[in-house]
Amino acid sequence: MLSRAVVLSPSANFSKGLTSAMLGAPVYAQALKQHEAYCAALEECGLQLLRLEADERYPDSTFIEDAAVITKRGAIVTRPGAPSRIGEVVRVRKELAQFSTLSSIHHPGTLDGGDVCEVENHFFIGISARTNESGAKQLAEALASWGYPSSFVDIRDVKGILHLKSGLGYLGDNRLVVIDSLSNCEEFRTYDLSVVNWQEEYAANCVRVNERVLVAAGYPRLEKRLGELGYQTIALEMTEFQKMGGGLSCLSLRY
Ligand code: CIR
Asked: CB under 6 Å to ligand 1: residues?
C-alpha cells in the first residue's frame, strides 16, 4: 500500500527543459492545471502529498521521479544522466533525509529514476542514454544490500523511449504494460503482458496507485483494455508534460 508522494510544481521556465519530442512548446498555465489535476488524483488514491515549490534553476525538476528511487527499505538519491539536471538532487536529498537508509549514486555512475521499475520485490533497471552501467550497478548493489534482487534491461537500441518506464508500467497482479519493442524482452517472459497499440505507446507509462491506475488521457484502447482487466482508471491530461518528454510516473516519487 502506498501512502505518500513527493511532487514538485513546474517552474515558469519549464519550457526551457530538455526535450526531443517535437510537439511544440508547452503552455505554462496549462501545465500548472494538469499538474494540479495529477496531484488531486494522487490524493484521491489515498496519498498524502509533500509539495515542493518550483525551482527555476532546474526547468526539468518537476520530473522529480528521476532524482531518487524510494523503496520500503531505503532510498537512493540518483545522479541524473543529463548534466543540466545533476543539481536537482541537492534539494531532493534534503527532503529524503528522513530516510534512515539513504544512499547515493556517485561518479562515474549516472542514473535516472525513470529507468527503474519496481515489480513486487524485484527491480528492473534500464540502461539508457541517461543511465549508464556504473549507475545501474551501483543501484543494484544498494538494492541487494537491502535484500532486493534486480536485473538490467538495455534500452539503448529501443527507439522512441527516453527511459525504461517510458515504455513499461507494472500494474500489480504479475501484469506489465509494455510497448511492442519491449514485449519480447527475456526479462519479462514470466509476466502477463498487455502490449499497447503502436499509436498509444505514450500511455504505456501508466501507474498503479493503490486501487487505481493513473493513465494518460486520450488513449482509449489502453484505457478500455485496463477496464476489461478489472482496473479502475483515472485518465489525466498530460499533453504539456509530453511535450517535454515526460510521462505520468515521472511527476512524483511514491512510497
Ligand atoms: C528530461 O529530458 O530529462 C525531461 N525533459 C523529461 C524527463 C522525463 N522523466 C521520465 O520519464 N522519468
From this structure: 17-19, 60, 63, 65-66, 82, 85, 114, 162-163, 166, 244-247, 250
